[in-house]
Amino acid sequence: KNSVGEVNPGYDDTGYRLSASYIDQFADNTIGLAIGFARLDSPGQAERWNAWGYPTDTVGGQANTLILGGSESFATSTSNVRDGLMAVLEWQPSENYNGALDLYYSKFERVETTRGLQTGLHWSGAPLTNAVVEDGLVVAGTYDGVRPVLRNDRNKREDDIFAIGFKNEFTFNEYWTGMADFSHSKANRDESILETYAGAAGSDIVNFTLNRRTGLPNLDFGIDYTDPNVIQLRDPGGWGQDGYIKYPKFEDKLDSARFSLTRSLDSEMFSSFDFGSNWSKRSKSRAVAEAFLDLANNRQPLPIPSNILQSAGNLSFTGIPGTIAYSVPGAFNLYTPRTNINQDILNKDWEVNETVITSYFKLNIDGQIGDIPVRGNLGIQYVNADQESEGFAVPGGNATQAQPFKGGKDYNDVLPSLNLIFSLTDEQSLRVGVAKQLARPRMDQMRANNGFGIDTTRGEWSGGGGNPELEPWRATSFDLSYEYYLFGGKGYVSAAGFHKDLKNYIYDQGVDFDFSVFDLSGFTGQIPTSTIGRFTRPVNGEGGSINGWELALSLPFGEFVPMLDGFGMLGSYSDTRSGVRPQGPGTSQPLPGLSRYVSNITLYYEKYGFSTRVSQRSRSSFIGEIQGFGADRETRYVEGEDLIDFQAGYSFSGDLDGLTVLLQVNNVTNEAYRETFRDPGTPDRPRSYNEYGRTYLLGASYKF
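-> C-alpha cells emitted (704 positions)
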C-alpha cells in the first residue's frame, strides 16, 4: 500500500506479490529440477511539481529579481504487473560431467495515467501585481491573464524478456577441468505515450505563494478546472496541436559463448591456472513513430463527452483543488493523427551492433610469502571489439531528405590484473588489487544518427549526433583494503581506498570534422569553401581520475553487553572524488551519478525467531541522468537524500515450522526526490519536487 493514496480515479493504491517454487531430484539424484513463478502487482502513486525556469526582471525597483517562469503540477498513478517464470534442469550422470539448462521468461506491463496543470507565470506575458520579494526572489504575487493547459496523459509499456543458458562442466582427470557455457537473451519493449490537452476558453487569474524550503507553489485560480461546463478539449497553449502520440520501440539481443580450461598445480605458490575465451554479440535497435493529434472540424474545441468523464484528479499538494479527468483511451478516438516527420524523431531511429571477443589467462595463487599466507590471482585479458551502427544523416534539419548513414570501429585492449589477499593473522586480512580496466559506451552514444547544415554566422559546416567510432572508458585502478574480523567472525571493521587513473573518458564535445562523408549536393546558396566544420558528439577525453575511501563495520552488541544479545549494527561511509569533467576540459560538472558522500547504517535485532531492522541510506547531491523530452537522456542536479526503511518479521517453530511473516515499510519519512537549477553566481533554485510516498508491504512465506 502506498501512503500517497489514490490521486487518480481508476487506480488502486494497494497491490500484491506472490511466488511459488518447486525443487526436486530424480533418477538416483542425477537429475535436478527447479521451477518457479512470481507475480508482482505493484501500483504506484506520485505527486510531482516542475518549475520551467527562473528568469530575471525588475520588480518593485529591484533589478535582476528572480521570478518563477512557469509551473507544472502532476498527479501520476501507475499499474505495474510483472509475471516471471524460471526453470532449471540439471543433469550429473557421473563425477566427470555436470550440465545445467536455465530458462527465464518475464512479461511486464505498465499503464500510467498522469493528470495535471501547466501554466506560464512570468513567461505567460500576464502582468504581475502584489509581488512579494525575499532575498532576490518573488515568493508571492498575482498574475492576471494566464492560460493553463490541463493534461490527461496515458503511457503504456510492455516488456518481454527471454533468456536461455546451457552450462557444461567437465572433469577430465585429477588435473584438468573444463567448462562450456552458451546463452541467448532477448528483450523487447513497446510503448505508447499519449498526451491530450484541455482548457478554458478565456484567460484566468492566479494568486501564488512559494514554499522557500521545497519550492512548491500554492496556486489559487479563479476558474474551477474540474467543471466540464467550462473545460473543453482544445489547444489552450497555442501549440498548433490538440494532443500528441509516440510509439517508441526497442529490441535488444545478446548471444554469448564461453569456453575455459583449468589445470590444478602441485606448487607451493600456485594452485592452478585457467585460460579461455568469451564471445558475445549484441544488437540493439530503437525506433519511434510520432504524430500530432488534431480534433475534428478543423481543430475546433470540443466539449468532453459525458460518457468518458471521471471524478477529478487530485492536485491539492500545490493548492489546486482538482483538475478535469476523463478516460484517455476513450478520448483518443476523438482525434485525427497527423504524422510528424522531424529530425529529432529520426535521431531516435538507429541500430547498433557489437561483437566482443575476450581471451584470458589467469594464474591462481595460494601460498605463502615468508610467514604470511597469500591468496589471489594474476591474469591478463585480450579484448577485441568490433562495433557498427546504422542510422540517418539529416541535412539542414529537413527530415524528408534524410540519408542512410553507417559507421563503426574495431579496436583491441590488453588488460593485465593482479589481486592479492594477505592473511596477516587469523583475524586480519589485507587486500591489494591493480588492474587495467575498461567500460564500454552506452549503445545510444554509438548511434550513427547525425544532423548537419551550414552555420551562417561562422560560415562553416556544423552538426551533431552520435559517434559509432566511440571507444570505451579506460583506466588503471589501484585498490587497497584492510579487514579486521571480531568475535570469531561475528563482526568486522574494514577500511578501503581506491584510485582510478583514467586514460580516457566520454563526454560531448565539438570537434573538427570532415563533412564530405555526407551527401552535400542538396545544399544551395553560400556554400562553405571547406568541408571541415564543427561537429558535436560523444568523444573520448584524455586524463582524469576518480578516487575515494570507505569505512565499514559490523558490530554484534551482545559481545559487549550480554543482555543485548541479538542486537547489532551495520554501517558504512564513503567519500569519492572525481577529477573528470564529462562536459569537456575547463568545465566544473562532476561525473553523472556520483555522490561524493554516501553512508548506510542498519540497526537490527535477530533472536528467538524475531527479526527487526531499521536502515538509513544517505547520499549527497549529484548529477542525475533522467529521461527527458522525446525520451532522450538529460542531466539534472539532484539534491541529496536520506531514506529510512523498516522491516520486521517472525519465523514460526513447532507445528507452524516453515511459516514466516514479514512487514516492510519503505521510505518511512516520505523523503521527496528534488532537482535544482544550479548556475555559477546564482543561488540554487528548486526545479522539481516529487513525492512517491511510503510503501507498506505485508507478506508471508511457507516452506514445505
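DSSP finds three helices and 40 strands in the chain.
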